[in-house]
Structure formats: structure tokens, C-alpha cells
Amino acid sequence: YRRLHTRDTRLSEFNQVERKVMLGSYTKVLFVRDPFHRLIATFLQGMGISPSFSSFVQEVLDSGMHNGSVAWKPLVSLCRPCLIQYDYVVMFGYLRQELGHLLHRAGLPVGSLPPELTDSQVQWTYRWLSEQMFSELSAQQKKQLSHFYRWDLAAFPFSSSFLSN
């Protein structure tokens, strides 16, 4: 398949047989994160020019699925979990635990993980941030965000997401 070696060809441009051949020899790992946490991180990193989280969320909703940034587009539209059979799905918030398992399965030393934040610290911090940021949103924005990320919420176990409620 000549197109396999071109840099600008997207996976979706290959037919099913070509995808299967191309991806068959790779270990495919997908890193996923609660969509609301992704929004918070994007806002805090200054990727949105809005003065408030609420106005940033409105920008995201107004941009829609097709015009939005990769930083906040629904994961399902970016990683195509129905198209690609991933070998591992690693959840942010359980990163240390899951990366240890993944390294072990790959035959790499598990002790080489950096001793930065523990998963429980990350989960607590994002829980607190989520409560603060979620309270800034109108009922309409909350409803629209849940709808915007409905496929992510259905595809991945984000049971504690504020958008799941």
C-alpha cells in the first residue's frame, strides 16, 4: 500500500483492509480523559481567550463538533474507537496504575515511572476544580455540554463525570 508511508494521509482515508494491515502489527493504546476535565485543563492552560470559564464553554458550544479545537473535541470524533480496535485504554486519573500494568505487559521496567502526583491526588484536584467550574455554568450550558459529549460519555466509563448527571 503506497499510501501507508505518506505523512499527511489520515487513517480514515484507508479502506478497512488497508487499516487492518497497517494497524495489525502495532500495540494500540488510547489515553482518555473525562471531557469536562479536558475543558478545565484547556481553559486553565489559556487555550481559550475567554475571561471566564462560562464564556469559554459557550465558545466551545458555539464552535460545534466540526469547527472545534482538538483540545476539546469529543474523543470519539478524534480517536475513532469504533474504527480501531485498541489493545489498551488508559484512563487519566488511573494513569500511574494503568501505565505500570502496560509497562509490565510490554516487558519494560515498571519502576521507571516518575514519582510525581499520585492518582488519588489528581482525582481529588479535578473533583474540586470540577465542582468550582461546574457551578459557574448555566443549566442550559450543562445540558448542552452533556449532549455535546454524549458519545464520549457512552463509550468510556466516566461515571463520576459532572456531565454524566
From TrEMBL:
Q: Which GO terms describe its molecular function?
A: sulfotransferase activity
UniProt-listed Enzyme Commission number(s): 2.8.2.-
* Keyword field contains Transferase: yes
Q: GO terms for CC?
A: Golgi membrane
**Chief location of this protein within or outside the cell:** Golgi
What membrane topology is given?
Single-pass type II membrane protein
Taxonomically, the superkingdom here is: Eukaryota
Q: Which GO terms describe its biological process?
A: carbohydrate biosynthetic process; dermatan sulfate proteoglycan metabolic process
Pfam name, any one:
Sulfotransfer_2
- Give UniProt keywords alphabetically: Carbohydrate metabolism, Glycoprotein, Golgi apparatus, Membrane, Signal-anchor, Transferase, Transmembrane, Transmembrane helix
Signal peptide residues are none
Where does it reside? Golgi apparatus membrane
Q: Which family does it belong to?
A: Belongs to the sulfotransferase 2 family.
Supply the PANTHER family for this chain. CARBOHYDRATE SULFOTRANSFERASE (PTHR12137)
Please state what the protein is called.
Carbohydrate sulfotransferase
Q: Source species, please?
A: Hylia prasina (green hylia)
| Encoding gene per record | Chst9_0
